[in-house]
Write a structure and sequence with these properties.
Blueprint (H helix, E strand, L loop, with lengths): L3 E12 L3 E20 L4 E7 L12 H13 L9 E8 L9 H16 L8 H12 L5 H6 L2 E9 L2 E9 L5 E8 L5 H6 L7 H19 L5 H4 L14 H12 L4 E3 L6 E6 L3 H11 L3 E5 L8 E2 L1
Parallel strand pairs: 3-4
Antiparallel strand pairs: 1-2, 1-11, 2-4, 2-5, 5-6, 7-9, 7-10, 8-9
Helix pairs in contact: 1-2, 2-3
Length: about 300
């Protein structure tokens, strides 16, 4: 048993245009969780930064709940799950903006539990992705939060349901993501609810080709990113959910800059190849003052303890 641990976990951007529920990217915006056992059985949570004053600070907090779940999964004795916990969540990942805040909370909390239970060295990245996927519901955000870099994730059929799997890709060193983050939030459930139950065969073929191309473009040939980030499968269908975000994506792409809605939105992710300053300036010009625009490096590593 470890008495105290500090875990860091990156933000993530999922989909990246055509890779719906499968492609993701880790971003160098980091949430930090300090955790320690305390006497008794109560859980206290201090939240600093994003979510302060709005998210729960007791045992109903998402991080607290997942730490408990992780302790129950990792501790064979069954004694640790009921112990008292003091958590401090220093959040930099914006909530409800399509940047993987819930995935960061889940992955960070599972890593906390593994370290508190002294089994972190025995829990593989694959196991962490699988467990986080069961809690999050899909693997596209949790995979880069665990592995860092870019990831391709999928679901396999397991004995008790779908199992999240993922592989990591190293991103070409010339590629820098540029984020445009609005003030307003968007619930993932609302964005998913806007999707149709059927898609045209031609649109499915279009996205399969672009998603495959995007893997190559991110890793080896960034000159293809504009074509590779195009999408027909989910972004146009969600126009009513995030009209401003989709309008910005279209304007940025018209300026010949690769761009997509980040995850369930409403943040927008663009890609600079080489010096990111011109892309930052152009994106800020197109977005206007209601959006926060900044270049954010790819996070080469995923969740880690220090």
């Amino acid at each position: 048993m470890t008495a105290e641990v500090v875990v860091e976990v990156p933000a993530t951007s999922a989909n990246l245009g055509p890779g719906f529920d499968s492609l993701g990217l880790a971003l160098a915006v980091v949430d930090r969780v300090h955790a320690r056992f305390v006497p008794g059985s109560a859980v206290t949570v201090e939240v600093v930064g994003q979510g302060a004053g709005t998210v729960a600070t007791d045992a109903s907090n998402l991080v607290a709940r997942v730490v408990r779940t992780g302790l129950a999964a990792f501790d064979e004795s069954g004694e640790l799950a009921g112990r008292g916990l003091a958590l401090r969540c220093e959040n930099a990942v914006p909530h409800g903006r399509g940047l993987g805040s819930s995935a960061a909370a889940i992955v960070g909390a599972l890593a906390v539990a593994a370290h508190l239970a002294d089994v972190a060295d025995a829990v593989s990245s694959a196991e962490l992705v699988a467990l986080a996927t069961r809690l999050e519901g899909h693997p596209d955000n949790v995979a880069p939060a665990v592995l860092g870099g870019a990831t391709v994730a999928w679901l396999e059929t397991g004995e008790v349901g779908p199992v999240g799997r993922a592989v990591r890709l190293a991103v070409h060193p010339d590629v820098t993501p540029v984020l445009a983050i609005p003030e307003q939030e968007c619930a993932t459930e609302r964005a998913r609810g806007a999707l149709p139950t059927r898609v045209a065969h031609a649109d499915a073929v279009f996205n399969v080709a672009r998603a495959a191309l995007l893997v190559h473009a991110l890793a080896s040939d960034p000159a293809l990113l504009l074509e590779a980030t195009d999408d027909r499968l989910h972004q146009p269908q969600r126009r009513s959910v995030y009209p401003a975000a989709l309008g910005l994506v279209e304007a940025v792409r018209d300026a010949r800059i690769p761009a997509a809605v980040s995850g369930a939105g409403p943040s927008v992710i663009a890609f600079a190849v080489g010096d990111p300053a011109p892309v930052v300036a152009r994106l800020a010009e197109l977005a206007g003052p209601a959006w926060q625009v900044r270049a954010v490096p790819v996070a080469a590593r995923g969740v880690w303890a220090r």
